[in-house]
Amino acid sequence: MPESIAIVGMGARGLSILERLVATARPDRPLVVHVIDPGPFGVGVHHEDQPDELLLNTVAGQITVFRRGDPAAHGTCVDGPSLAEWAGVERDAYLPRRVLGAYFRDAYARLVGAAPPSLRVAEHTTRATDARRAPDGSWTLVLADGTRVSADFLVLATGHGTLVPSDVDVAAEAFVRRHRDRNRALAYLRTCYPLAGLSAIARGSRVGVRGMGLSAVDVVIELTEGRGGRFEEVADGELAYRPSGAEPVIAVWSRHGRAFWPRARNEKSPADVHRPRALHLDAVHRLRAEGPRDFTRDYVPLLQTEMRDAADRIDPAASISHLAGLLEVPTGRELGPAEDRARALAAFFAADERRAEAGNMTDPVKAATDAVRDLRNEIREAVEHGGLTPQSHRVFVEVYAPLLHVISAGPPALRARQWRALLDCGILRLGPTAAAVTFDDEAARFRLLGADGETWDCDAVVGAAVDPFLPERDDDALTRALLAQGLGRPYRNGDYHPGGWDIDRRGRLRDAAGEPIGNLCAVGNPTEGPHYFTNMLPAPGLPSRITADAQHVVEALEEWRLAPRASSPSPIPEETVV
């Protein structure tokens, strides 16, 4: 009987596993790969029916599935184009997300087509709802369509989960039901995804959007341009917004009052990535050898040094004191009247757009923030798998990680221009800083109550964020089944639970007793907790964490193959083999 592996989830992370399996396939070792996903295979969350106004936040030249040139990519890599080459666009183009979905679907077909005869792919266009482990270690997966699939090895590449509603969510939803007959515009969306749910927001209503990052960009563009409004270029390259009349009035707010920073125009080739002088792997390993560290004390000064070095290479006279200062006092809040804060935000956007358009090798501030992107592997090595004390890990996840994401992983500068135009015309405004959502039963409206007492009443509240993966609160049937059987547990760093499955360094889940399960791995968002920043796509010619994680799965599969145990059958429904 051939060996078999089941991959649950065939988006970007599932593709990475398939790419590694095809590249390392051996003619003398038959392997069946069960692919389980509602489909289309490869697409993941990048659905091809998304509207064109939803853009990627990474340029097309920095995305590829094909890993030739990546030092973590062992075996015979399948050749294929980057997204930019496949789409026939310039490397620095920001494409609609639906185009990435089409590219991923094509990449999946290329990988399946390139597989040698010893590797067969069995497709299951449905979800996995349960997994049972036999005494010999083999798996039986129960699928939503009633099919049962046997496999020797199981990989969870399930992507973002969906949390069961919290007590706060339940109370907000009950408030809407209680008063909907008095206010037909009343709505509560715990999360903005899928974006089709925004159809519940009534035209002309007032909506509060919790968040000012990339997800808020999605919400704002869908409630404006997505409803027929138009951005028109006027004098000096500025934009003016022409409403359609179908928009609501939108107030955005966040815990700290900070919004996204526009990402710089990319001028870098793979050879131009920032090479660390202070925050290098040897320094990280020396620090970790002494025990768990404090990120603020031990790593922030090193990161500031790297940012200053990156800026100095562009302009030794440039000052990045404000940027460095953000890392010194990351808990400060932007307070004051909403109108004053909106003017300050518009002024910041205007200045940062100019820096972004200059490029990441021309503007010293953007060179500094882009260095943070280049240092993600070093930061991962510092913080992952118990690298920080529990208290410092909490501060990193709740304060530093969002801040580093804001300054280094923003949307294209176009989005800042659009927000300035929306602020100018009054459709967009800033809500109270660090607002709590309260209920006004008399008025049948939500009330946002800010940290400084400022209020704003609204008909709808939208959470502009992706759910974190918290196994104990996840709504997925397979997650619940694994937890119930003790075949996985939430990751904890001491008394702190940042999210994610508890895994070892090969990505193998630990059971309820803390022992690694040799033939059960997870990759991607379900490991965000023991891992950091798992959603970055592979770039051509550069080492990729995604590839490294997938290679670890292949190595874990090989270790499991060599482990002594009874063999298990691996039947393949003929109609699913491609």
Set out the fold topology.
Layout: E1 3-8, H1 12-23, E2 31-36, H2 83-87, H3 97-114, E3 119-124, E4 128-133, E5 139-143, E6 148-151, E7 153-156, H4 167-179, E8 187-189, E9 206-210, H5 214-223, E10 230-233, E11 239-242, E12 249-253, H6 281-288, H7 295-314, H8 321-328, H9 338-358, H10 364-374, H11 376-383, H12 390-408, H13 413-425, E13 428-430, E14 436-440, E15 445-449, E16 455-458, E17 460-463, H14 477-484, E18 508-510, E19 516-522, H15 545-562
Parallel strand pairs: 1-2, 1-7, 2-3, 7-19, 8-17, 9-12, 9-17, 12-13
Antiparallel strand pairs: 4-5, 5-6, 10-11, 14-15, 15-16, 18-19
Helix pairs in contact: 1-3, 1-15, 7-10, 9-13
Give an account of the 3D structure.
With 578 residues, this protein is of the alpha/beta class. It folds into three domains: 3-163 and 468-576, FAD/NAD(P)-binding domain (3-Layer(bba) Sandwich); 167-250 and 422-463, 3-Layer(bba) Sandwich (FAD/NAD(P)-binding domain); 270-408, no CATH class. Helix content is 33%, strand content 15%. The protein has 15 helices and 19 strands. A six-stranded mixed sheet has the order 3-2-1-7-19-18, covered by helices on one side. Helix 1 runs parallel beside helix 3 (97-114) and helix 1 packs across helix 15. The longest helix has 21 residues, at 338-358. It starts with a strand and ends in a 16-residue tail after the last helix. Residues 568-578 have low confidence and may be disordered.
